[in-house]
Amino acid sequence: MYSKIKNVQYLVALMKEHNVKHVVLSPGGRNIPINHCLEQDDFFTCYSVVDERSAAYFAIGLSQQLGNETVAICCTSSVAASNYTPGITEAFYLGIPLLVLTADRHPHMLNQMENQMIDQVDMFKNFCKKCVNLPYTETPEDNWACQRMINEAILETKHHGDGPVQINIPISGGIGLFTEPKLPEVKVIKRYEYKREMPSWAAKVEELKKAERILVVCGERIPPSKKELEYIEKFAKKYNCVVATEHVSNVRCEGSLDLFGAAQVMPLDKFTDFAPDIVISLGGNFISRLKDMMRAKPAKTKHWLIDEGGRVCDLFKSLTSIFECTPYDFFEYFVENAPSGIKNNKKYYNQWADYAKKAAYPEFPFSNSYAIKALSKEIPSGSLLHLGILNATRIMEHCELKDNITSYSNIGAFGIDGSMSTFMGQAAVTPQGLAFLVIGDLSFFYDMNALQMRHVSKNVRIMLINNSGAAEFHFFMGEKVIPTLNKHIAAEHSTSAKGWVESRGFRYYSATNENELNAAMQDFINPKADTPAVLEVFTDKKADAEELKAFYNKFKPKAQTLAKKILQRP
Length: 570
Known about the structure:
This protein is 37% helix and 17% strand.
């Protein structure tokens, strides 16, 4: 029988899945649930060493004689864990893969004179490749995080060189209760390093061959090489997949679809018909609702992550495989090793393509949506485009762009503070073509010093959407929910950029309606102008938000829309 404590169950189950079978146990009270689960399971070979100092060194000897196999050591809380320090230090410098299991007490009791409790989190950080502190497993989110952390720690013992890792396990209540007849099913994450584990890659070819729905999600990244793009296209022709892109993924090829609009308007229950068997992700972050929808239904999808550093990033809560390689290596391998005659039947691609047509962006009256869509039609091929976060990025994603436009957005950390400075750096080393920035007012004024840099190029064109505050909060919340929204949250103001822009030598244009915008557009864009330009578009933040919400609400089930209206009534 196993402990009733969930984080202990997950730990033991994942140790078995990762084949960590040799364990050195030291006596104590707090680690009773772990020790007993291990000693009564025939999978494990357990060794008893009372002194934790000796236990860590004993484990080093075991690992060395087992061919640097990962060996676990387990102790109770407080100074018992401290006594591991010399042995862990030795293991770190010898490159020995020790899995250090330190039992702990409830974190709320730290520094509250709780018996046998010290701060054990990161206590070995200078001598461990990784340290994780498991959560109590009280919610589904806790269960997911706990399993992910255990996988991550065990994988790190033999990643880019061997070495020790620490898993700190807070244990509270039920120490002596062993009522579970079997361990729970757990999600196992495996890492496949390029050129080191190619037999395992071959088995993955068979998985791709059998899959009817493969979704390749391309996040934010610099443009791929021509050769990589060719292999992505060949991959899309062979396997039953659709390559999901956004402007900032800078991937455009046969078999790709910009699915931002389709995902943005798709009701969650509808996604069940579109959920992939396998989702393959590459690049950085992305802004579409695909992430949210797959997180809501994680059990049905296997997630393959392409990451050159081999990092564990379970963004869909369904991560099963990490391919430690470049995207080029990944796509080249699975194209060159694809079964002869295999061909994409296009069913999954056509399903998404048909739905994407329904999400066509309408013609809005004058608003931030109108202005951004108007600009999207005028940006010349070969230009650079940088988008401020949230509305600028969201709205432009609904618009089509000409070929060969390189797009960026600071969606790594999603901060509003440096979009214009980042853009100025990009424009400074883009000698050919124009460089466009679409930015909101709060973000612009936050980063307005970027206009006085010495390195502002004459190719710079900035569309500033000034709706006198943060329209984002009117979009997903509104004054019905928070009547004082404009005061501190949306930060309402009445500032114009005109004086500052002109003092810095920029050509300045403004628009408060469609006619003014259309009249200014061509002169603003003029590629022959020898000075940079700013076009300040004045709109109403509340109206901007309502227009966009009305468009999205068209795709929601009527019952859902009605329920939302009722909940928002004062």
